[in-house]
Amino acid sequence: MTAPPRGLTAQAFGGLAFLAIVMGVMLFGAAGTFHYLAAGQFLVLFLGCSLAITLYLLKHDPDLLARRVKAGPVAEQRPLQRLIQAMASAAFLALIAVPGLDRRFGWTNLGAPLVVLGDAAVVAGFLIVFLAFRENSFASAVIEVGAAQKVIDTGPYARVRHPMYAGALLLVAGIPPALGSLWGLLAFIPLAAVIVWRLLDEEAFLTEQLPGYAAYRRQTRYRLIPHVW
């Protein structure tokens, strides 16, 4: 186990704090009230899971955490991925804001069982992402091929080629119901489309740049869901 790079802890926790502020402002600002129990529950779950994964990586794989904190459109090296990441960021903010607006104007009011189901999907999505991180220390937040990088075909990568994206899709699909909103699912559609666009471009890049990835694609047929796609 290597020591965390200098400044990594501050960078990681600073990023989490910034994310918490942005999500809180977007969600409660759109709702126009702090009396929004489902939102409070969701933020505790989302940020708690994010914190748990951050702490795990700090202790067990600080190099991966360093790759993960280097994220966003400006971190991408290729113009197409800068565009994709910018669109993904906007779509994620919409996914948070629309349920807040739903709460403000009372468009829908999902019952507690569906809210809990949404919370469960968020936690399950984080778990899948964590399993992908634990298996693949090269899971950078930007599309690149690092030094000594190799194809990972074990653990969840033996079932699908993109378990991290599969977990992310389940996570974001759970956000609208976790926030008590049906209309928020409309905001999920463009975000899901952007994630699929990103993984397809990533596959083309890795096939060209990472030795053995073309063979891995032939060996592991499914991208996101076993026996489906």
Describe this protein's structure.
By secondary structure, this protein is mainly alpha-helical. The chain has one domain: Up-down Bundle (Four Helix Bundle (Hemerythrin (Met), subunit A)). It is built from eight helices and no strands. It is globular and about 55 Å long. The model has no long low-confidence stretch (mean pLDDT 92).
C-alpha geometry: globular
CATH class: Mainly Alpha
**Helicity range of the residues?**
55-70%
* Known CATH architecture: Up-down Bundle
The low-pLDDT segments are: none
The radius of gyration over CA amounts to 18 Å
Largest sheet: none
Average predicted local confidence, pLDDT: 92
CATH names the topology as Four Helix Bundle (Hemerythrin (Met), subunit A)
**Beta-strand percentage?**
under 5%
Query: What is the number of domains?
Result: 1
> What's the number of extended β-strand segments?
0
> What distance separates the N and C termini?
36 Å
SSE layout:
Layout: H1 8-31, H2 37-60, H3 62-69, H4 79-105, H5 112-135, H6 163-178, H7 184-209, H8 213-219
Summarize the structure.
The protein has 229 residues and is mainly α.
Task: Name the features.
229 residues; mainly alpha; Four Helix Bundle (Hemerythrin (Met), subunit A); 8 helices
